[in-house]
């Protein structure tokens, strides 16, 4: 049995107009056009490790940091290390759009507002009617590493989540493209959980 042919969706351009030295195209009908948005899909549960095998944990003050953690300590720390990664449909194709939350009596969601990493007390919204958000990151596979991921901010293009050492501690930061951090500081390993 032959498959049904798929209709091409196209935009019928009927006119052009210059406004302030910018060329705009005017469409005949725009009912097939979608505005920019992120739409929440299914969650996935993960433990996040840096390349030194340290586990990302959210402490009582909601400051994310990386710690050494033996396998037998994972269960007792589960509410602070089990991240709920909500996958989002993206109206633009830029990578897998995700948000990170933890549930510890209340829901807290990772934000990079003002380029400061923190957890806000909030449930990730079902829809975000913009093409950038402080809680949306694009998950990308690190070239040459089949299990390592990096996460680019949708709000700050070129800025990635990173593990930064401060004394004997490691914390989660948003790495600016000009900031001097080791290349592997933006690489993370996700351990999926059920």
Name the shape in a single word: globular
Distance between the termini: 39 Å
Mean pLDDT comes to: 83
Per CATH, the class reads: Mainly Beta
Largest sheet: 6 strands, antiparallel, barrel
Low-confidence stretches: 1-10
- In CATH, the topology is named Trefoil (Acidic Fibroblast Growth Factor, subunit A)
Structural class: mainly beta
Query: Rg, please?
Result: 20 Å
Number of strands: 15
How many discrete structural domains?
A: 1
Number of helices: 2
Hey, roughly how much beta strand do the residues contain?
over 45%
InterPro entries: IL-18 (IPR015529), IL-1_fam (IPR000975), IL1/FGF (IPR008996)
Pfam family, one: IL1
Keywords: Cytokine, Cytoplasm, Inflammatory response, Secreted
GO molecular function: cytokine activity
Offer a few descriptive terms.
single chain, 194 residues, mainly beta, Trefoil (Acidic Fibroblast Growth Factor, subunit A), 6-stranded antiparallel barrel, 2 helices, cytoplasm, cytokine activity, cytokine
Structure described in brief:
Pfam families: IL1 (PF00340). Helix content is 4%, strand content 48%. With 194 residues, it is mainly β.
Detailed description of the structure:
The strands form 3 sheets. Strands 3-6-7-11-12-15 form a 6-stranded antiparallel barrel. The protein has helices spanning 71-74, 78-81, and strands spanning 13-19, 22-27, 38-50, 55-58, 64-67, 83-90, 96-104, 106-111, 118-121, 127-128, 137-141, 148-153, 160-166, 169-175, 188-193. Mean pLDDT is 83; it is low at 1-10. The chain has one domain (38-192): Trefoil (Acidic Fibroblast Growth Factor, subunit A) (Trefoil), CATH 2.80.10.50. It has 194 residues and is mostly beta strands. It contains 2 helices and 15 strands. Keywords: Cytokine, Cytoplasm, Inflammatory response, Secreted. GO terms for molecular function: cytokine activity. It is found in: Cytoplasm, Cytosol; Secreted. This is Interleukin-18.
């Amino acid at each position: 049995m032959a498959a049904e042919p798929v209709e091409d969706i196209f935009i019928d351009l009927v006119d052009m107009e210059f406004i302030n030295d910018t060329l705009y195209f005017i469409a005949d009908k725009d009912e097939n056009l979608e505005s920019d948005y992120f739409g929440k899909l299914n969650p996935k549960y993960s433990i996040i490790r840096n390349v030194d095998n340290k586990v990302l944990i959210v402490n009582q003050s909601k400051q994310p940091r990386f710690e050494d953690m033996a396998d037998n300590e994972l269960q007792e720390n589960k509410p602070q290390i089990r991240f709920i990664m909500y996958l989002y449909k993206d109206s633009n194709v830029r990578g897998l759009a995700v948000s990170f939350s933890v549930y510890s009596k209340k829901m807290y969601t990772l934000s990079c507002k003002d380029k400061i990493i923190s957890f806000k007390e909030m449930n990730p919204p079902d829809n975000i009617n913009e093409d950038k958000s402080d809680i949306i990151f694009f998950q990308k596979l690190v070239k040459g590493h089949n299990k390592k991921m990096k996460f680019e901010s949708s709000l700050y293009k070129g800025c990635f989540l990173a593990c930064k050492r401060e004394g004997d501690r490691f914390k989660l930061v948003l790495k600016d493209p000009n900031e001097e951090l080791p290349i592997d500081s933006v690489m993370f390993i996700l351990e999926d959980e059920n």
